[in-house]
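Regression report. Comparing outputs from two consecutive submissions.

Submission 1:
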Amino acid sequence: MEKIKKDIGHSPDIIIREFKIGTVEIVHAAVIYVDGLADKDLIHHTILQNLMIDLRETRLQEEITSQIIIQQIKEFSLSAGELEIIKDYQTDYEKVYETILSGDSVILIDGSSEAYKIGTKGWEGRGVEEPTSEQLVRGPKDGFTENIRTNTSLIRRRINDINLVFEPIKVGKRSKTEIAITYIKEVANDKIVEEVRERLERIDIDAILESGYVESLIQDETYTPFPTVYNTERPDSVVGGLLEGRVAILVDGTPFVLVVPALFIHFMQSSEDYYQRADISTLIRLLRVGAFLLSLLTPAAYIAVTTYHQEMLPTTLLVSLTAQREGVPFPAFIEAVFMELTFEILREAGIRMPRAVGAAISIVGALVLGQAAVEAGLVSATMVIVVSLTAIASFVTPKFNMAISVRMLRFGFMILAATFGLFGIILGLIILIAHLCSLRSFGVPYLLPFAPFVLKDQKDGIIRLSLWGMKTRPKLISGKDKVRENTPKPSP
């Protein structure tokens, strides 16, 4: 007790409750926990009441020794559901300290070389709510929370299978953050599971404060604008990935769960695609791909056509654009960069401002600044339309991190268009596709199932077949169990 008090007992949130057990043969004991991390009601009912009151009422006989009392405590008196014995803790107190600081309680009994770890985690946390970053019209409304136990239960309730595995691992020398590697045996590829395990075990860092730390430390490629690790707040999205053979990584303290391997087409899909009819889902996916290309290339195409390739425009449209740009003192490239940067600033301001005024600032700011810039002759009205269309198209992408990648690449294509025209855009697309082909996500090609082309996996790419048509799991992602379902085609 003196050593524990010296090491961690000076903090006001470390509670050390000493008490006595027995009536004739008195045994000294103590329970240690952290106020705010442990459930005090649980400690009272399962530990203190049992040992101080109930055990005392058994009227232990005089000949019963302290060792028998210790044996009785271990076998009969602790009614906690989660009990672990820490043997010979005096040689290494690290396990005791880790238990206390993680929210559990430790019982020390005089005369025993064993400490008793009682599961009493019970800190205050946010309840299960609808995800704020991925909202759906049709689908479940529950989302992950900052409590890893709540998150595992949200997955477990959807997959009632003994093959669902949660492998715990502690990462962070000082934070000792709990991480769970989640997969379905035989459905997941064993090589991918082993790769995930090895990459997590290689992490050597002081603390993991959010799953973004883990993502940046285990991703395949650092110098790329494209995300190679998928993150989501939605349990149904994670479960869908697990059923395809992917591996999920749950990090305690964050509602964002990582899913690997992540493919390019994965970021163009949404959970809602599987809750609608196949034809509707296919149309929406085509719209997303079209919006992706619009948000990437619209300003660059405008710059290239108005600067180098005016002959490609109809005469009436060319005359209209020339008349609008007559009083603009800047070339199209400077005009586009100015408007894009202005909109990016407005978007960030709207995100960082309080929610009540954030939307108003972004909308009113865009309207006022756009109108004022056109009236002042700084930009043309067509450029305002182009930038607005680009911004709206960027919001169609379901995943925020993929939309950010497009925002970065857009400026590169604008520079190529201002330098070489349409030839620069084509050159940029060739470089971009070559870069995408070179990327891997945990050994799986990033452009799968398009490069390499896998015919069977086209059923859930840009075009989605009906559920009865998606009989097999993705070829290069899943493990031994390739068959997903055998439901025949519905018929009258």
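Submission 2:
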Amino acid sequence: MPRLGAAAVPQHRAPGAAGVLHLGLGNFHRAHQAVYTAAAMAADGGDWGIVGVASRSRGVVDAMREQDLLYSVAEISPSGTALTVPGVHTDAFVAAEQPERVVSTIAQPGIRVVTLTVTENGYSYSPATGHLDVADPQIAADLRGEGPLTTIGQLARGLQRRAALGGEPVTILSCDNLSENGAHTRRLVTEFLQELPDRSGADALEYLERSVAFPSSMVDRIVPATTDRLRDDVAHRLGFWDAAPVPAEPFTMWAIEDRFAAGRPAWEAGGAIFTDEVGRYEQLKVRLLNGTHSLIAYLGALRGAETISGAIAMPEIERAARAILRREYEPSVEVPAGVDVRDYEEQLFGRWANSALGHRTAQVGTDGSVKLRQRIPEPATQAFERGEQPHLIALAVAAYLCCVAPRPGFDPGPHAASMVDPARARFAAIAQTARDGAECARRAIADLHLFGLELAERSDFIARVGELIDTIVHHGVSAAIDDAVAASDAAAAQQREVLR
């Protein structure tokens, strides 16, 4: 079968020049920012082509280069599949192989926006403090002048080079699930430059203050991993072989602060929302969507569900998901103007039930030690301030620990076993030596600061997590769900009685 390329898409017009550098050339970027950028250039033109930089893997880079930098996006729903070819990339390379090229490209005056999708784990910060993790060996190496191989090191060194070459304005736009991701990224880059020896970062710090913008943004689209089955299906539909197609759900959202130092693509042409309420959109997504998504993934994996749709189809998991969303996450969210939270919630359950998408519980559950840090402490703390025990949040934590750090003799199943987590080894060591669930929870949350400092001293929460770990291990996941939901129901009934 012929390969996808420029000849296969005669109506495609390659971008004239690049105005965007993107760090993190994974599926999410290619099904989200790239699609919005294609719509922007179709509507408004401009030199907004994207230089895509993969962190380490050559797979996508090689496939795109062999296909004239083209790939397809398969929008999948139970009603069918629609294919598009965004065609907005002008180049692609691997940062680990060409770290100097990352720095020099950030420094190019034609690059006016640098976007990031490197996951929460890619920002090299300490979950306990929120500050740059200078003890991280890679950060230490970048500070010594090696690489740079970390995202923060690449940004800081690129801005340092840009400042030295004249200091043209530029915008750094994080598109990862971090609270106030613009301010968070700015702080980490600033701390990196401050850590450089002999005040060698001083000029870059002045330039950053004067000419670099760090707007926050919220991104939302479910984008699973690419499979061979998808490649075969896309080839059948396209009539061309695409080695790097991207599956995605129909839903997509992007809320952005309109604070750019050197212009931007007309992303609103693709439906992007420019708003002063990005923080509220972040809460909506990180808590209602991501927080509940995590609960579904961990409970589903423990129940043997390979996919999110398979997990949410189990009545007890749907019941737990509705309870955590409505009772424990929703009260912590300030809803953006014009958003009907009930419609949004029902839309979420429809998205999770998309059985055609095949979104795996293992993928959603990966990197939980970093992801949950964004999703759990604030809603849990607010629940305690209301005088409530967040039973379902405690269930999510217990299910997470049972997935990545199972107690001796407990088999969490293959989907939990395939979850990747930077803290897995540390938590697994705890699980193997702890006397019971209570000790396991205490050592993970209080000693190792799984959620930073916010919940480290909440002995009642830690004890509740421990109880639910023991229930999962000795009586099964369904018993733990029944326990947590019943306790939540009882608390809600008591609250209604007080208000009556």
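Expected: both submissions complete independently.
Actual: both completed, but the second showed a warning that disappeared on reload.
Relevant detail on submission 2: The longest strand covers residues 18-23.
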